[in-house]
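Pilot study result, target chain (178 residues):
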Amino acid sequence: MNTFDEIVARRRSIRSYDETKPVLKEELESVIATALEAPSWDNAQTSRYHVVMSEEMKAKLRECVAPQNAMVSKGAGAMVVTTFVKGRSGFKKGEPVNDLGDAWGSYDLGLQGAYFLLKATEMGLDTIVTGLRDADKVRALLEIPEDEIIVSVIMVGHRSKDGVRPKRKAVDEVAKFY
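Predicted structure:
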C-alpha cells in the first residue's frame, strides 16, 4: 500500500510520455472524483474539467498552447483543461468578501489540482501542469462558457522517461512559527 508520503515523493512533473500506453476514461473519472473531494469556498465547488482524449482534439488543443507545452503533451493520453466559475468562490450575494475576489476560485482549483495530481500518481499515471496557453483559442475550441476562467492544461499519461526531483527548500526557510 502507498502511504501519502510515498505518493508525494513519487509524483513528478513528467515531460515525456509513452504514447503506446493509453489513459482510460474511467481512470480520469476516478482522478476527477477524488479531486472533487477537496474543500472549496462555502462548498461552492466551482472547478470544472474539460477532458480532451481524442487524437484529433489533442492536436487542435496543442495549437492553443505554447510550443514547449505542445511538445510536452505529445504521447500524453489526455489533456485536461481546468477552469473555475467566476464570481462564486469568495463572493456573497454577488460581491467579493475581501480583496481576493476571484482568486478564491483559483485557490479552490489549486486544492483540487493537488488532489488530482496525487490521485493520478497513486493510480500509476503521470502528469504535468502547464499554464502557457491562449485562453481565447482554448475557449473557442472547447466551447468553454464565458463565466469560466481558464487556468491550466494538465497532461496525463504514462512516463517514457523519469522526472527529476528538484531541490526543495527547508521548512525553516519558508515558515515562521509564532
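One observation from the pilot: The chain has a mean pLDDT of 95. A full batch analysis is planned for the follow-on phase.
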